[in-house]
């Protein structure tokens, strides 16, 4: 699942490379991606892109007086072709290159494609006046990547709730931009169990969790700077200390990283670092 560090890198790339380019043609190959049928992506033909901005796990391209919002969903991503032969690369998570669901011709042999590697279509395209018209963006919680993100906002998100902290970290209405992978990384760095309830956390655990959230998200954004967009997923996978590392050795303590499945999701954690040795 795309998360804020990789989506931020994608957004910066599009802001640099797509700004100033006119949308010459639009080819929607999967019509289920279009969420604003009254104003489809084809309505943007002839307009010029003026910039890109990230909202959680969404990318908004400013196009004239409108915004093309790409909701990346669970397996969405983008490909950029500019004046060179197209070579399809398999992603770090699939053996076959994901199909393009829509393509935007930007002239000068340059094309932006949006893709989805999932077995069902999760990527969505919205053409709106204001990105906040997209329901998921309107409900987004504060973003730890934002310099204005405060401890008070973090404490409000936790709110003394009797809910597992891993679920809260991934709850976009509470904290924007974090998904399954980085929640595992945050919890490992903070030495907090993924199944601990927010209401049960000690003050020192909450302190560590806040610091780990900022360190993990902002550090990953900085680490992804300058990486080509077709290499971002691989860079993310390579950077993980515990996520998808079940059976491997914890780099912190040397224990074995464990897998744990619950509530239709999964987590990887270190018993020594996070659960006082208990195997979940």
UniProtKB/TrEMBL annotation:
This protein's UniProt keywords: DNA damage, DNA repair, DNA-binding, Glycosidase, Hydrolase, Lyase, Metal-binding, Multifunctional enzyme, Zinc, Zinc-finger
PROSITE patterns: FPG_CAT (PS51068), ZF_FPG_2 (PS51066)
Swiss-Prot/TrEMBL catalytic activity: Hydrolysis of DNA containing ring-opened 7-methylguanine residues, releasing 2,6-diamino-4-hydroxy-5-(N-methyl)formamidopyrimidine
One of the protein's GO biological processes: base-excision repair
Xref: SUPFAM superfamilies: Glucocorticoid receptor-like (DNA-binding domain), N-terminal domain of MutM-like DNA repair proteins, S13-like H2TH domain
Keyword Zinc: yes
Cofactor: Zn(2+)
Transmembrane segment boundaries: none
Alphabetized InterPro entries for the sequence: FPG_cat, FPG_N, H2TH_FPG, Ribosomal_uS13-like_H2TH, Znf_DNA_glyclase/AP_lyase, Znf_FPG/IleRS
GO molecular function: 8-oxo-7,8-dihydroguanine DNA N-glycosylase activity; damaged DNA binding; DNA-(apurinic or apyrimidinic site) endonuclease activity; lyase activity; zinc ion binding
Domain called Formamidopyrimidine-DNA glycosylase catalytic: residue spans: 2-121
Domain of life: Bacteria
Keyword hit for DNA-binding: yes
Domain named FPG-type: residues: 241-275
Family (UniProt): Belongs to the FPG family.
PANTHER family: FORMAMIDOPYRIMIDINE-DNA GLYCOSYLASE
Name of protein: Fpg/Nei family DNA glycosylase
The organism of origin for this protein: Microbacterium allomyrinae
């Amino acid at each position: 699942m795309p998360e804020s560090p990789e989506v931020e890198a994608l957004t910066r790339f599009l802001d640099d490379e797509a700004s100033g380019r006119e949308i010459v043609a639009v080819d929607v190959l999967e019509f289920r991606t279009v969420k604003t049928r009254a104003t489809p992506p084809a309505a943007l033909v002839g307009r010029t892109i003026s910039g890109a901005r990230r909202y959680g796990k969404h990318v908004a391209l400013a196009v004239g007086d409108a915004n093309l919002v790409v909701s990346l969903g669970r397996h969405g991503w983008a490909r950029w072709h500019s004046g060179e032969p197209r070579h399809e690369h398999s992603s770090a998570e699939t053996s076959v290159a994901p199909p393009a669901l829509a393509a935007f011709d930007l002239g000068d042999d340059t094309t932006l494609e949006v893709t989805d590697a999932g077995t069902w279509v999760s990527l969505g395209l919205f053409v709106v006046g204001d990105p906040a018209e997209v329901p998921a963006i309107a409900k987004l919680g504060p973003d730890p990547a934002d310099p204005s993100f405060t401890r008070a906002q973090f404490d409000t998100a936790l709110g003394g709730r009797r809910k597992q902290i891993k679920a809260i970290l991934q709850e976009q209405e509470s904290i924007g931009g974090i998904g399954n992978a980085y929640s595992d990384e945050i919890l490992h760095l903070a030495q907090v169990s993924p199944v601990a309830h927010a209401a049960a956390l000690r003050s020192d655990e909450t302190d560590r969790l806040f610091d780990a959230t900022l360190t993990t998200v902002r550090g990953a954004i900085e680490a992804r700077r300058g990486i080509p967009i077709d290499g971002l997923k691989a860079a993310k996978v390579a950077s993980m200390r515990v996520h998808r590392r079940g059976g491997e050795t914890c780099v912190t303590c040397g224990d074995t990283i464990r897998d744990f499945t619950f509530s239709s999701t999964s987590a990887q954690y270190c018993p020594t670092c996070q659960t006082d040795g208990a195997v979940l």
